[in-house]
Design a protein that fits this description.
InterPro entries: ClpP/crotonase-like_dom_sf (IPR029045), Enoyl-CoA_hyd/isom_CS (IPR018376), Enoyl-CoA_hydra/iso (IPR001753), Enoyl-CoA_hydra_C (IPR014748). Keywords: Fatty acid metabolism, Lipid metabolism, Lyase. Strand 2, helix 1 (about 30-45) and strand 3 form a beta-alpha-beta unit. The protein has helices spanning about 30-45, 70, 75-80, 90, 110-115, 145-150, 155-160, 170-175, 185-200, 200-215, 220-235, 240-250; strands at about 5-10, 15-20, 50-55, 60-65, 100, 105, 120-125, 125-130, 165, 180. By secondary structure, the chain is α/β, with parallel strands linked by helices. The strands form two sheets. The protein has a six-stranded mixed β-sheet, with helices on both faces. Strands 4-6-8-9 form a four-stranded mixed β-sheet. The protein has twelve helices and ten strands.
């Protein structure tokens, strides 16, 4: 298993657990963290033994944002030339499912990274926010778009314009997170969800993810057509034949990923 400067990565069965590990900076997302995340997610995606991933931080912070100290001296020209933050598109290109398990602060880029996950499980200590306005900037890793799609205009606009934090209960009411669990149980609950996903037929898992994500990119008719075509396509897989036969024979399915 590869090692990373800013991440701790382990596998438990078919689940990859990735921990952000820059405690001295509350897991602020600098260039090294991004490079490590790109490499870790690519390795997860390419490993046929791995079927779901969990990304988490520490008890105090999932991530307190992009690294302000790294950005402070940068000019527009430098950021534009480097296409700063564009690398996160490689993280969102991960085809297999992954969950963000968030405890503590998920601010700015931290909130944005969590929203790149297929869903967020939150500890009751989680706090979400887009406080970039207080630094004279604005969300830069997709927050203005993903937060608005998740919670609607009113709350997204209020969060971006005031920089206030949303606690876990409010985040659940606003549909930003799938579920809130006690902080002490966050990793266990996230691993349980991930193990459940990992036990599903893998091609169907990817197809389900692609369909739901298509809802953010297409109109309703095109989205439904995309869904139906993918559904029809899944009917050509061995796992579809196995899944339906197993149901009829009242036994668990035995997946091949084919
Ligand atoms: N970048 C760099 N360093 C950070 C950081 C960040 N985003 N957030 C925290 N740190 C560092 C602090 O500077 C501090 O380091 P030192 O001990 O060397 O001073 C260390 O982490 C611990 O932080 P605090 O002492 O501030 O901890 P706290 O408990 O008092 O406060 C906090 C916690 C409220 C999260 C506070 O750290 C904070 O407000 N952080 C910044 C949050 C923020 O503005 N995030 C948005 C960043 S911009 C962005 O993300 C752009 C984008 O859209 C992609």
């Amino acid at each position: 298993m590869a090692t990373y400067e800013t991440l701790l990565v382990e596998t438990q069965g078919a689940v990859t657990l990735i921990r952000l590990n820059r405690p001295q900076a509350l897991n602020a997302l600098n260039t090294q963290v991004l490079a490590d995340l790109i490499a870790a997610f690519a390795a997860y995606d390419a490993d046929p033994t791995q079927r779901c991933a969990v990304l988490t931080g520490s008890e105090k912070a999932f991530a307190a944002g992009a690294d302000i100290k790294e950005m402070q001296p940068k000019s527009f020209a430098e950021m534009y030339a480097e296409n700063f933050f564009a690398g996160f598109e490689k993280v969102t290109a991960t085809r297999k499912p992954w969950i963000a398990a968030v405890a503590g602060f998920a601010l700015g880029g931290g909130c944005e990274l969590a929203m790149m996950a297929d869903f967020i499980l939150a500890a009751d200590t989680a706090k979400f926010g887009q406080p970039e306005i207080k630094l004279g900037v604005a969300p830069g890793m997709g927050g203005s778009q993903r937060l608005t799609r998740a919670v609607g205009k009113a709350k997204a606009m209020e969060m971006c314009l005031t920089g206030r934090m949303m606690d876990a209960a409010e985040a659940e009411r606003a549909s930003l997170v799938a579920r809130v669990v006690p902080a002490a149980e966050l990793i266990d609950e996230a691993m349980k969800s991930a193990q459940a996903i990992a036990a599903m037929p893998p091609l169907a898992a990817i197809a389900n993810k692609e369909m739901v994500n298509a809802a953010f990119e297409t109109g309703l008719a095109q989205g439904i057509l995309f869904e139906r075509r993918l559904f029809n396509g899944l009917c050509a897989t061995q796992d579809k034949a196995e899944g339906m036969t197993a149901f009829v024979e009242k036994r668990p399915g035995n997946w091949t990923g084919k």
